[in-house]
Specification:
By secondary structure, the protein is an alpha/beta fold. The chain is built from ten helices and eight strands. The radius of gyration is 19 Å and the shape is globular. Bound molecules: NADP nicotinamide-adenine-dinucleotide phosphate (NAP). Pfam families: adh_short.
Length: 331
C-alpha cells in the first residue's frame, strides 16, 4: 500500500500542478520581452542552448551582440544551432563547446578550456535540463535529475564564479540565471537520500532537482551579497513550453501532448522571454537582482527555498558530493 502511495502521489501531484499552471497560463497575458539595449562586449554561457528555450535565449542574445558559448552534449545539434543563428545574424558571435552535465569531468574540462581563452563572463544561464527520465545514474553515480539539473550546474557555477566576479562591476553585475520550474513548489529535498537510492520516482526526482536549483540560486545570491561581489543569482520559471523536454512522458500522455501542445503551450521564444529579461535588463541591478521570476515578475517561492537549515544542509552536502570546499567561495 505504502509503495503504491509513494509511487503514484508524485505523479498525480505533478500532473495536477501542470494542469493548474497551464490553465492560469492560458487565461493570462504572455509576457513580452521589452526591447533590450545592445550588449556588445558581453560574454555569456548558455547550457543546453542547442534547442528549446536555450536556443531562443542564445539566438536573442546573439542578435544583441553578446558573444555566446553554447555548452551542450550533442555536438551535431549544437553546431546546427550555431549555423542557423549565424545565417540569421551575420555578425553573430556564437560557438558550441562540449559540456555533459552528467559528467563532472566534462564540466571541469569545459571550464578549463573556457578559462584558457582568458575571456570575461558576464552571463551564465543554467538552462539545460532533463525531465521524467527512467532511473539512471550519471558517470559519478548521482541520480540523473539530481546530477544533471542540479549538481552539474552547481559545479559549473562554482568553477566559473571567479571569472563572473572579475567580470562584474557595481551597477553592472554579472548574472547567474538558473532555469527552474513551478514544479519546485511540490518538490521535497530528501537530505538522507538525495540520489533516490531507497526509492525512485521520476516525478519526485524532477521536482526535487528543480527545488534544489532554487535553494542553490537563493543561497548563492545571499553569499554573493554577503561578500559584496558584483554578481547576482536568480531563478526563472519559463512556464509550460512546447519543447522536447516532454519526450519521456507516459506514452498515451505524450500522444495527447504532441497533438495539443502547439495550440496550448508557450512557444520556446515565449518561454525564453523571462530568462532573457533577468539576464539582460538594466532595470534588474542592485536590490532588484536575485529572486525567483516568472512572466517577467519577481514571485514568491515555496517556503523551503528560504529555510536556512535546508539551505545550509543542501549546500554542504553538495560541496561534499562534488569534492569542493566552502572557503573557495569567499576568496
Ligand atoms: N518546457 C517546459 O515546459 C519547461 C517548464 C519548466 C521548466 N523548464 C526548464 O527549462 C529548461 C530548458 O528545457 P527545454 O524545455 O528547453 O527542454 P529541451 O528542449 O529538452 O532542452 C533541454 C536542453 O538540455 C540539454 N541537456 C540535457 N541533458 C544534458 C546534459 N547531460 N549535459 C548538457 N546538456 C544537456 C539538451 O541537450 P541534448 O540535446 O544534448 O540532450 C537540450 O539542449 C530545463 O531546465 C527545464 O527543466 C521547461
Amino acid at each position: 500500500m505504502m509503495f503504491i502511495v509513494r509511487s503514484f502521489l508524485p505523479v498525480i501531484r505533478l500532473y495536477l500542478l501542470g494542469l493548474k499552471v497551464l490553465l492560469i497560463q492560458l487565461f493570462s497575458r504572455t509576457f513580452r520581452l521589452p526591447v533590450m539595449p545592445r550588449q556588445d562586449g558581453k560574454v555569456a554561457i548558455v547550457t543546453g542552448g542547442g534547442r528549446g528555450i536555450g536556443y531562443e535565449v542564445v539566438r536573442h542574445m546573439a542578435s544583441l551582440g553578446v558573444h555566446v558559448i553554447i555548452g551542450g552534449k550533442d555536438e551535431q545539434e549544437g553546431q546546427t544551432a550555431v549555423r542557423k543563428i549565424c545565417q540569421e545574424y551575420k555578425e553573430a558571435k556564437v560557438e558550441f563547446e562540449l559540456l555533459d552535465l552528467a559528467s563532472l569531468q566534462s564540466v571541469h574540462q569545459f571550464v578549463q578550456s573556457f578559462k584558457h581563452r582568458g575571456l570575461p563572463l558576464h552571463i551564465l544561464i543554467n538552462n539545460a535540463g532533463i525531465m521524467l527520465v527512467p532511473e539512471g545514474r550519471t558517470q559519478s553515480g548521482f541520480e540523473l535529475h539530481f546530477g544533471v539539473n542540479y549538481l552539474g550546474h552547481f559545479l559549473l557555477t562554482w568553477l566559473l564564479l571567479d571569472t563572473l566576479k572579475d567580470s562584474g562591476r557595481t551597477g553592472h553585475c554579472s548574472r547567474v540565471v538558473t532555469v527552474s520550474s513551478s514544479a519546485h513548489s511540490i518538490g521535497k529535498i530528501v537530505l538522507n537520500d538525495l540520489n533516490s537510492s531507497q526509492f525512485y520516482s521520476a516525478h519526485a526526482a524532477y521536482c526535487q532537482s528543480k527545488l534544489a536549483q532554487l535553494v542553490f540560486s537563493a543561497q548563492l545570491q545571499q553569499e554573493l551579497q554577503r561578500g559584496g561581489f558584483p554578481v547576482t543569482s536568480c531563478a526563472v520559471d519559463p512556464g509550460v513550453v512546447n519543447t522536447a523536454l516532454y519526450q519521456h512522458l507516459w506514452t498515451p500522455l505524450r500522444l495527447v501532448h504532441g497533438t495539443l501542445a502547439p495550440w496550448f503551450l508557450r512557444t520556446p521564444a515565449e518561454g525564453a522571454a523571462t530568462v532573457l529579461y533577468t539576464a539582460l535588463s538594466p532595470a534588474l541591478e542592485g536590490e532588484l537582482g536575485g529572486g525567483y521570476w516568472a512572466d517577467g515578475c519577481k514571485e514568491m517561492t515555496s517556503p523551503p527555498t528560504f529555510d536556512p537549515e535546508l539551505q545550509l544542509s543542501l549546500w554542504e552536502s553538495s560541496l561534499q558530493l562534488l569534492g569542493l570546499r566552502w572557503h573557495q567561495m569567499k576568496e
